[in-house]
Amino acid sequence: MLTSSDIAELTALRRDLHRRPDLSGREAATAEVILAALRALSPNLVLTGLGGHGLAALFDSGTPGPTVLFRAELDGLPIPERSDNAWRSQIDGAGHLCGHDGHMAMLLGLGRVLSRKPPATGRVALLFQPAEEIGTGARAVVDDPAFTRIAPDFAFAIHNLPGLPRGHVATRTGLMNCASMGLAIHLEGKTAHAAMPQDGVSPGPAVAALINALPALGPGGVLDDRFRLATLTHAQLGAPTFGVAPGAGLVHVTLRAARDAALADLEAQARALAAREAERFGLQLRIETCDPFAASVNAAEAVEIARSALDHLKIPHSETGVPMYASEDFGLFGRDAVSAMLCLGAGETQPALHNPDYDFPDALIPVGVAIFAQIARDILG
Fold first, then answer.
1. Cβ–Cβ under 8 Å, residues 47 and 146
2. At what angle do helices 300-313 and 364-380 cross, to 10 degrees?
3. Kind of pairing between the strands at 154-162 and 169-170
4. Same structural domain for residues 273 and 314?
5. What gap in Å lies between CA 131 and CA 137, rounded to an integer?
6. In whole angstroms, how far apart are CA 256 and each of 6, 141, 287?
7. Each residue of 214-238: pLDDT tens digit?
8. What residues make up the domain containing 275?
C-alpha cells in the first residue's frame, strides 16, 4: 500500500493541481502533469488524447482475466476560488471546487500500488476523463476508437461528498445520479422603436409564457422513477435599453430526470412547448442542447464487490445521501461494463461542492487509494 512518502508526494501533487485548474475541454496542461506522473510508474500502455485531453494507463498482468477501469476527472470549474490556502487557484475565474484534483491524486496513488504489485490476472485501467463538468467527456471517451483498447468489464469511480461523515462511503444499487441536460431556447422576432412597438415582433410574450410553462413540465418531488424537474436558470429579453422594443429573447432551462428515457421525453415536451409558443407569436426558433448527462446507475454486482472491499477495509458505508439529484458524467461507462459510483464523505462541515470556499480534504487520498486497490485485488487477485 502507500507509504508515508507516497502520501506526502500525492498531497503535494494534489495541491499543485489545485493551483492551476483547467476548464472543461482545455485540460492540456493538467494532462501533461498526469502523463509525466503515469510514465514514472511504467505501465504496460499509456493512451493519450482520449476524447480530447483524456488519458489512460493500463497495468496488464499478462494472464487472461477481466479489465477493471477506475476513473478520475481532469477538469476544474469556471468559479473563482475564495481561500487563504497557500495552494489556492492561481488562475483567475477558475478553481478545483469539485475535488477533481483529489480524485486524480487518488488514481495516481492506485498507480503507485499497481506499479509495485501488478494484478495477478487481467488488467487495470486508470482513466483520467476530460470535460466531466459539462457532460461531454464520457461520450467523447467511449466514442474514441482508442477506447476499444481498454474495453472494460468493470468500471468504478469515487466522488467526494461534503455533508457525509469524513471517510464514510455512500453507494447503492440502481440510480446514483440523475440524467440532465440544458436547453438554450432562442426566439427571434423583429426590433422596433420603443415608441412604435407595433412595428416589430417582440419575443416578450413567448418568453413570459415559457417562464411560466416550462417549470410545470417537471415539478420535481421525490427522487423515484417518476421524478422530473425543469429549472429555469436564465432569461433575457432584448438589450438593456429604453428606446428599442426587443427583437430577440433567450430562455435557459435545465431538465432533469431519474432515467435517460424519461429525460428524452421531458426534452421532447419542452421542445414542443417552445415550438408552439414561437409559432403563436410569429417568432423564429432555435434550440441548443448543452451539458448532456446520462443517468448514472449502479449495477448490483459492482455494488456488492465495492461493499465487500469496504467491509474488508473496515470502512463504514450506507445509502445515506444517495441517490442524488445532481448529475455526474460517469453513467455511460456502465453501458458496456459492470459499474458503480461510490461517494466518499468529505466531512459534515465541509463546504459544499462548487462553492467558492471548497477544498478537497487531503486525508481522503489514502482512503480512496485503499478502496480502489482492494476492489482491484478482489476482482483480479
1. yes
2. 120
3. unpaired
4. no
5. 4
6. 41, 23, 17
7. 999 999 999 998 999 999 999 999 9
8. 179-293
Query: Which of the four pLDDT bands, split at 50, 70 and 90, describes residue 1?
Result: confident
Per-residue pLDDT averaged across 341-367, rounded?
Answer: 98
- 155 with 18, same domain? yes
Same domain, 94 and 217: no
Residues 271 and 349 in one domain: no
38, three cell numbers: 503515469
**Annotated binding residue 98:** yes
Which residues is 310 bridged to in the sheet? none
Residue written as grid cell 445515506: 320
Average pLDDT, the chain: 98
Cell numbers for 25, please give them: 475541454
Q: What is the pTM of this model?
A: 0.95
Task: For residue range 63-73, list pLDDT tens digits in order.
Answer: 999 999 999 99
Among residues 244, 272, 293, the one where a domain terminates is 293
159 is in an annotated binding site: yes
Tell me whether residue 18 is annotated as binding: no
The residue assigned the cell 512518502 is: 5
Number of folded domains that form the chain: 2
304 and 173 housed in the same domain: yes
In 3D, which of 240, 317, 249, 310 has the Cα closest to residue 284? 249
* Count of CA atoms in the C-beta half-sphere (13 A) of 194: 7
For the chain, report the end-to-end CA distance as a whole number of angstroms. Answer: 15
Question: Could you give the angle at which helices 4-19 and 28-39 cross, rounded to 10 degrees?
Answer: 160
3-state secondary structure of 132: coil
